[in-house]
Give the backbone structure.
Amino acid sequence: MKRPAPWPYPRWVAHRGAGKLAPENTLAAFRLGASQGFRAFECDVKLSADGLPFLLHDDTLDRTTTGQGRAGDLAWTALSQLDAGSWHGRQHAGESLPTLRAVAAFMRRNGYLLNIEIKPTPGQEEETGRVVAALADQLWAGADVPPLLSSFRPDALAGARATAPSLPRALLLDTLWPDWFEVAASLGCVAVVTNYRLMDAALVERLHGAGWRAMVYTVNEADDALRLLALGVDGLITDAVDRFAPATAG
Ligand code: G3P
Ligand code: MG
C-alpha cells in the first residue's frame, strides 16, 4: 500500500463559497463562508468566449444572473456587466460574476485554500482545463499550498496536466463508471471526489490503498457527516456552512 502524501487541505470545504446562504460562486459567498469559520472553498470555473476563466456553475446564465443563454458564448466585457446576486436576494443586488483572478486574490491575501472545479462549457473540456490550470499556476505562484483542480471531465484534467502538471488534480465522480480508477491513475490524480452516497469503507480503502485522498460532495446532514468521518474521508464539501462551522471547520 502506498503512503498518501501529506494533505494540506482542511477536512471541511464550503461548496460554491457559502452553499445556499449567499449567491453561489461570488465573492459575497466566500466572505460569508469565511465568516462562518471555513478556510477552504470549492468553486466552479469556466471560460468566457474570449477565454477568460470566471466563476459560474451552470452552462447557462439564466438561473443565477440577469443574463440569458450559454455563458461561454459571451465575452468577459458582457459577462462583467451582469448582476449575479439579485436572484438570491435584494441585499446582494449588483454582485458581479468574479474572475478566477479576483478569487485568487481573496484566497491568497487571507490564507484560504481553494478547490477549483473545472466546469467546462460542453465541447470546451480540454481547452478549459488548459487555460484554467495555466492561469491558476500563475496566480498561485510561490504559494505554500496550490489550488486543488477537480473535474467530472477527464479531458479537462488532461488539459490541466498538460499546462500545469505540478498542480494537484482530483477526479469527480457522480457514479462509479467503468474504468474510473484507471482513468484517475492515468491522469495522475491525488484524490477522488465522489457523491457522498457512493463512499463506503471499501472505496475509502481502495483510494487510500492507491495513495489517493477520498473526498465527498455535497454533505449537508449531520448523520451523513458522522458516517463519512467515521470512514476516514479526507474532505467533505458542504452547503451547510452555518451548521457545520466554525467548531467543525478544521
Ligand atoms: O466539486 C464538488 C461539487 O461541486 C460537484 O457538483 O454540480 O455542485 O458542481 P456541482
Ligand atoms: Mg462544483
In short: The mean pLDDT is 96.
